[in-house]
């Protein structure tokens, strides 16, 4: 039994903190094929008006979806995920990286056991994913 | 600049993509997904899967290039340098596995104007080699108005 399949509506699930470094962005750029330089080149990022190199929105969403899959104990359990990208995650050129605080709360349990999970992703105290919702279905 | 409204409701022919063991491993490693079912064929089969399991967000590997073909069509009138990715969703019909040969059809769901900014939603319907549904993604992009430029 996983944390999600035991949970009732209103239950807060175990939070997780992840860090994102420049090296992580380069690895994600290669794996995803999204080579937009704002995700790895400070000069280009600043030229287009950003405070610095920012994480791919899809990378942040991927970390959030993986977090929910881990909570479910099954990588195929997340059958839907939707989000708005509300703020960029600026990733500094250092060895520490940016911190992302992930949280999840079950908001609904359907008759077939499917859970609706509201997901939060905070960076420096502000939400970077808006209205993030995962649908988790037990196999 | 307003987008060409005639793009709304149009769809673009299918593009084929073959999901491979190594790409699944690479993507899973990049997002820190260390569950063996993403990396080890035997572990995936022991868990009841036909092959390694692609992470939930893996389809961006092929849905984004398929979408980009439409985004970059000069006739649409979207300046990619001013584009912000606002919303993203994925709905999974069945898990995606290494060995799947999938086709993606891009559809422009909606085009609208929001205070002078162009808002466009792309849907990508992904089916397997048998024509069965695998997943659907939706991405909403906003083309920001040029500062001081024309307002729709």
UniProtKB/TrEMBL annotation, chain A:
MaoC-like domain residues: 9-120
Bilayer-crossing regions: none
Pfam families: MaoC_dehydratas (PF01575)
Stated family: Belongs to the enoyl-CoA hydratase/isomerase family.
Protein's UniProt name: MaoC family dehydratase
Taxonomic path: Bacteria, Bacillati, Actinomycetota, Actinomycetes, Pseudonocardiales
UniProtKB/TrEMBL annotation, chain B:
InterPro entries assigned to the protein according to its UniProt record, in alphabetical order: FAS1-like_DH_region, HadA-like, HotDog_dom_sf
Annotated signal peptide: none
Family label: Belongs to the UPF0336 family.
Protein name, entry field: UPF0336 protein GCM10023203_13410
Stretches assigned to the FAS1-like dehydratase domain: 7-136
